[in-house]
Design brief:
Blueprint: H1 2-10, H2 16-20, H3 22-31, H4 39-54, E1 60-65, H5 80-88, E2 93-99, H6 102-112, E3 117-120, H7 123-131, E4 141-144, H8 155-168, E5 177-180, E6 183-185, E7 191-193, H9 196-205, E8 209-212, E9 216-219
Parallel strand pairs: 1-2, 1-4, 2-3, 4-5
Antiparallel strand pairs: 5-9, 6-7, 8-9
Helix pairs in contact: 3-4, 7-8
The structure holds S-adenosylmethionine (SAM).
S-adenosylmethionine (SAM) binds near residues 65, 67, 99, 100 and 147.
């Protein structure tokens, strides 16, 4: 009995923030320092996602377009797929990642194993089929990072990403987090990037940014 009391008294006090947000604490120490310009965007995504997952019993749902295509490319591409896998090791979460390139699918399977359902295919088609399938349900994080952005020809990429958003719209509801990678400010004001047209759509609907930087993040 006395032993038990002593053990309790001597046990290290838990850091309250780390106890309340176990992934966020892990993110700050292990991943944020690697992520350069994406550290703030991912922080905002995980802060909101962790709060959602902690507040309910059913598994979360993360869907990304544009999978990790190279191992260890933290500052360049972001390694988003690895981050979802890590999150799912702490919170019960289903993770889907789609990429046009079978080599990216292979890399995801090798790096993430069963934690991520990796699919080869066109993202717009994939999202539309998902939204119309029996497994359709509300998405917690929709991370759009497919069709590469070319500054000299910005429209095709921005157009592709708004098509993704339209395709999966039935699976977005109150609280869903939508993020689009690779956005760039103009020195004279305004933005360009993968999320340019989506930004106009969200603005029209009066949905404010949760984060505006290299990644655009909104929460419905
Ligand atoms: C920037 S990389 C994704 C990086 C990854 N999200 C990360 O953080 O490491 C973009 C990927 O989008 C894929 N892609 C391009 N067009 C696509 C399309 N129509 N459908 C699905 N994936 C596409 C490319 O094959 C490429 O692997």
């Amino acid at each position: 009995m006395l032993n038990k009391l002593f053990r309790t008294a001597l046990a290290p006090r838990k850091d309250n923030a780390a106890a309340a947000s176990p992934f966020l604490a892990h993110y700050e120490s292990r991943f944020a320092p690697l992520l350069a310009g994406r550290a703030g965007g991912f922080r905002e995504i995980f802060r909101r996602l962790e709060a959602r997952c902690a507040a309910r019993a059913e598994p979360g749902l993360i869907i990304e377009t544009g999978s990790m295509r190279a191992v260890g490319n933290w500052a360049g591409d972001g390694q988003s797929t690895v981050l979802w896998k890590e999150f799912a090791s702490i919170h019960d979460c289903e993770v889907h990642s789609v990429d046009l390139d079978p080599e990216a699918t292979r890399v995801v399977r090798e790096e993430c194993g069963d934690a991520v359902q990796a699919v080869t295919g066109d993202s717009v088609r994939y999202l539309y089929d998902f939204a119309n399938s029996p497994q359709a349900r509300q998405i917690d994080v929709l991370y759009l990072d497919s069709y590469d952005f070319v500054p000299e020809n910005p429209f095709p990429s921005a157009f592709h990403h708004i098509k993704e958003l339209i395709a999966v719209r039935p699976c977005l509801g109150p609280g869903s987090i939508v993020a689009i990678d690779d956005n760039f400010p103009f020195s004279e004001g305004g933005w360009t990037g993968k999320g340019y047209l989506a930004m106009e759509w969200f603005k029209h609907l009066g949905i404010p940014f949760a984060h505006q930087g290299h990644q655009f993040v909104w929460q419905l």
